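Escalation from tier 1.

The customer reports that the assembly of four entities below gives different structure tokens on two consecutive runs. Tier 1 could not reproduce it. I'm attaching the input and our single run for tier 2 to review.
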Amino acid sequence: MASTTIYDVAGAAKVSLATVSRVMNNPEKVNPETRERVLKVIKELGYRPNAIAKGLASRKTTTVGIVMADVSRASTSQLLGGIMDIAKKYNYAIKIFSVAEGEDIKDVLRIVVAEQVDGILFLNDELESDKMHMAINQIQDDQIPVVLCNVNYDELDVPTVTIDYEKATYEITKQLLEEGKKDIYLLSTVRKYTVNTHKVKGYEKAMTEAGLEPLIFRTSGDVSINKYHFEEFIKNKHIEATIAVRDSIAVSFMNIAINAGYKVPEDIEVIGLQNTKYAVLSRPNLTCVDTPVYDIGAVSMRLLTKYMQQEEVTESKIVLPYNVVKRGTTK
Amino acid sequence: MASTTIYDVAGAAKVSLATVSRVMNNPEKVNPETRERVLKVIKELGYRPNAIAKGLASRKTTTVGIVMADVSRASTSQLLGGIMDIAKKYNYAIKIFSVAEGEDIKDVLRIVVAEQVDGILFLNDELESDKMHMAINQIQDDQIPVVLCNVNYDELDVPTVTIDYEKATYEITKQLLEEGKKDIYLLSTVRKYTVNTHKVKGYEKAMTEAGLEPLIFRTSGDVSINKYHFEEFIKNKHIEATIAVRDSIAVSFMNIAINAGYKVPEDIEVIGLQNTKYAVLSRPNLTCVDTPVYDIGAVSMRLLTKYMQQEEVTESKIVLPYNVVKRGTTK
DNA sequence: CTGAAAGCGCTTACAG
DNA sequence: CTGAAAGCGCTTACAG
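Tier 1 run:
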């Protein structure tokens, strides 16, 4: 069954294809009566313009490209949730692209550009920083709007939507310090993500201001690996509180600590910096800085639509607010 | 900076655009010397064919459409992981579409079709069953290949990749029965997903065969809701074991049970039917039927490529194997 | 093996 | 307000 084209509609409505096109794109330029007649035929035939042909003729595909490292990561899929909802609202289609481990971002980008997207969203921060810089320069040469989503390179002048992870971590560390805690560890990852770098900075600032040496323990994001790290860690260190860059790391640590005989929060307080579903499935439930990942996705997509439609943008770097959710792992 | 077109390449290589096109699509039809010359220019100019123009001219977009209810659900994003990896391997681009709560699948489908995808993948089973049937009929009328991914409508003759949830649940229930357990509850959802229907069937079969009345407790997938359900549940029932359709439900139940004074697995055994990351972040770790969600995504994408490229397909309904991972919540 | 030409299904100045 | 025509960047028979 060949699908119906603009010619079919034009024929049935006894107008030229130009008029049908206008009815769809500039209805105000068409005589109301003609317009109604065409609209009726469109509905009868169930006509929908071929997006590919439209894209070629108008040189706008109404499609955005999303570049990410790993879809299955919880934050990525939540970002996607926000992005999809807003994209739907503004009638944008979404193409997704992954950068595999070891693959060159620039290669992926050339594909994205060849796919003729109207704008690009970079998700998260698992992509190597220096390559990202080059990649972004390249896109900007191509004149195609980009927004960075949940990642922040301070030194780059690129539209960005994120939260102030440094401040969040600084504040939560300070709260622990004010309670009189001293042996506060930051549980971070071995691999250096820019977002985690900001968290480390905020933590270090708070500790240093309090005259204390920062205590950072780096491990893997993989539970089956960090488990062993934590078993050693807990044996050898005196720990009063931990703040983890990811909830799953916080929960993994807490489970090991409790199994080793510690009480949470009485002996050790534990805090996560995300507020994912892990936080409400742990026992006790995890206190968290709540980072609005869905919103970051939604806002970044909205920002991108502004650039694509050449609307005026007053703020190109948007920082969303966060808040703290107190649960059972803190006093 | 306007991007380079096939004309630029043709000009620089002193051939016609037809030859450039052939070099890219049917290299064997081009004289080796000419081919090398063109290839060299392509590399120099960094030429990549405009995917949109190519799609229009060839009526193949090398793009697949993925239709889903909710990206942020863990199983969806894992399916996507498998899909993306295989799609990349076969050079397919991916467009994602969501069906919002209350939205008509047919409306979404008309968009998908207008976007000119070469094939469609339906993810999971959150879409209303009767509407799905109509939707699938519609696509098949449009002659566009479809594969169902991690969902199975027995009564529909549509290519499908899934696992045998009924058998898996039957077997795990039987194992508990053989240990002498009788008060074995199935924790399912209030909303009826087809996949869960299969799980219920397998469970009921095992219980009935053992001469026992099936014991099904239905609750919400939302932890903040099912928590209260479980508090009542545990007060009023005698429970020896539970099997949950989702890991998060299993963990949520287990936390309530332990807080109420029960020991797991001594008093109550708990089993999940997914094996997500939740299973290794619970205390104790959750015994699970391990369902290979990534693989389901990968295999379904591979199957779809076969249909799109008109390769011969020997099996249109693929059932992947699963296995059981014993951890701390069973004896 | 190679090129000229038609066509994919639209949009968009340009006339009228 | 409407239509004829050119063009978007490719592919693909058809000749040669």
